[in-house]
Specification:
Layout lengths: L5 H12 L51 H12 L3 H6 L2 H9 L3 E4 L6 H10 L10 E4 L2 E4 L5 E4 L16 H14 L11 H12 L4 H5 L9 H23 L3 E5 L5 H6 L3 E4 L5 E6 L3 H10 L7 E8 L2 E8 L4 E5 L6
Parallel strand pairs: 7-8
Antiparallel strand pairs: 1-4, 2-3, 5-6, 6-7, 8-9, 9-10
Helix pairs in contact: 2-6
Length: 336
């Protein structure tokens, strides 16, 4: 599996290399590091990972399954190209929410996130936004965004990947294919092309009760693509963090699956400079996604948008500076 589409980014990275960037880290001695980066290994054999036991038992399925595994995979890939249409226009986002809601646990994350909330509070970046504002009452920091977080937990009380099913169009596509297959209708979709797929899916599900259908399936099975993306994202975060640390910064927070700071504020990393200043970092696994997040400006309070890239066979971090509107490239080679 290709983790990063490096070739796609090389031209863009070279363009940034030639624009005469100002060094992000004062005293690093260079604007552009050229030492070879160190790649990380990604676990791709998800079959070896144990899946959590379901709290929601599926009803027995009696329909005859019609599609071969190959047909189902091909169809799933075709359906996944419709992306967020599957989640919102087709109604799977709300339907999945309704099925999962009874087994969700409401959690107040404020007590366990005091260190991060203090940093966010002291930054002053969110004090004008009601639901993200952090208050300080006698030394206790509180955010409404972290007060009543509803999540599905696994049997050990940890975050369950099924929480992301309703926004992961690849896993949703797998679920849709299994629904179609359970009715013996795979053959009706095999030859439908990209341009007609939306209409075909709309027609197929328009008179169906999605909630009732979904209750027949173990939704926790549909997390394979989710897990792949999470592993890729975690690897990207670790590499970007290494690059910052090589420049003398300290990581005081790193998010992860189900972390409320990550989910509510979009903060993947909080890095502290030697002088004590904090930077909020969002990490994407692909440069295009990082550049898009930076240019759209919908993530409030983020200082740096980063992703790993490959530049002349050297792995680096590309950084978009939201405040100074500059772009930087640097590696995980420690400064001298």
């Amino acid at each position: 599996m290709e983790i990063f589409n490096y070739k796609q980014f090389i031209t863009e990275a070279k363009r940034f290399k030639d624009t005469g960037q100002i060094d992000l880290f004062a005293g690093s001695g260079t604007e552009y590091d050229s030492s070879p980066g160190v790649g990380a290994h990604l676990v791709t054999n998800l079959a070896t990972q144990s899946q959590p036991q379901a709290q929601l038992e599926p009803e027995a399925q009696t329909a005859t399954q019609s599609g071969t595994q190959s047909q189902k995979q091909i169809l799933s890939e075709k359906i996944a190209t419709q992306k967020l249409f599957l989640c919102y226009d087709l109604g799977f986002y709300n339907a999945i929410e309704k099925v999962l809601d009874p087994i969700k646990t409401t959690i107040n994350f404020n007590p366990e996130k005091q260190k991060e909330l203090k940093i966010i509070h002291d930054s002053g970046k969110y004090q004008h936004i009601y639901h993200l504002k952090v208050t300080n009452r006698n030394g206790f920091y509180e955010s409404l965004a972290l007060k009543n977080v509803k999540l599905v937990l696994d049997k050990d009380g940890n975050y369950d990947p099924v929480n992301k099913l309703n926004t992961n169009w690849s896993d949703t596509a797998d679920l849709i294919v299994d629904i179609i297959d359970s009715n013996g209708d795979i053959k009706d979709f095999i030859n439908v092309n990209y341009y007609k797929m939306k209409d075909a899916l709309k027609s197929y599900f328009q008179d169906k009760d999605l909630v009732s259908i979904l209750k027949k399936f173990d939704l926790r099975k549909y997390v394979v693509n989710n897990r792949q993306k999470s592993l890729i994202g975690e690897e990207a975060e670790n590499f970007v963090k290494e690059c910052f640390m090589a420049k003398g910064l300290t990581c005081v927070f790193q998010g992860g699956d189900g972390d409320p700071i990550d989910m509510r504020y979009g903060i993947d990393l909080i890095m502290q400079s030697p002088s004590g200043n904090y930077s909020f970092v969002q990490v994407k696994s692909a440069q295009g996604a990082a550049e898009k997040a930076y240019s759209e400006g919908k993530y409030i309070g983020i200082d740096f948008f980063c992703s790993p890239i490959d530049d002349d066979n050297v792995r680096k971090t590309i950084l978009y500076d939201a405040k100074n509107h500059k772009t930087h490239l640097f590696t995980n080679t420690p400064r001298k």
